[in-house]
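Agenda item 2: magnesium ion complex prediction
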Amino acid sequence: MVEATLGLGSNLGDRAAMLRSAVAALSAADAVAVTAISPVYETPPWGPVPQGPYLNACVAVETSLPARALLDLCLAIERRHGRERAVRWGPRTLDIDILDYGGQHLDEPGLALPHPRLVERAFVLVPLADIAPGLVVEGRTVAAWRAAIDASGVAARPDISLTGPA
Ligand code: X6L
Ligand code: MG
Ligand code: MG
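Presented output:
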């Protein structure tokens, strides 16, 4: 079994429902157990494409799937949630990124581990620090990366929970 961390994002449709349904779909997968779920944050869109604000969260999973199979599962779940890839870096109903897979380093088409830009992105680091502060990425803990980044604009949404009843 490997512990992996995943980043979830949505800025189209019923964003909270997308994230909740994504967690349910991961939990329902035979070879995946969801072991931690972060709070939900509303975050300003980052990147070159003007688009609406995101809800972001992170989850930790234990899985017997190899990294590539876990990626394929994430992409299949995205597609079931209406994910279209019309515009690179454009708005999406659901995004599920593998952030870390047991500390493994990999650089393959479509799958780079740990996620190469994770430490630059407050919308990833803030929820990740909630569930995996001691995870070491690029020689520093997630907590240390989190403490060093400008997270202004990343707003907790305690009114939205991915655990328990909606
Ligand atoms: C220059 C060129 C500067 C590209 C930044 C940043 C590209 C982020 C893609 C970039 C660049 C991304 C989310 C998001 C996206 C999300 C929030 C991406 C992929 N996904 N913003 N923007 N949350 N808040 O999940 O991360 S597009
Ligand atoms: Mg992403
Ligand atoms: Mg993605």
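Discussion summary: The helical segments are 15-28, 67-80, 122-131, 142-148.
Owner for follow-up: CH.
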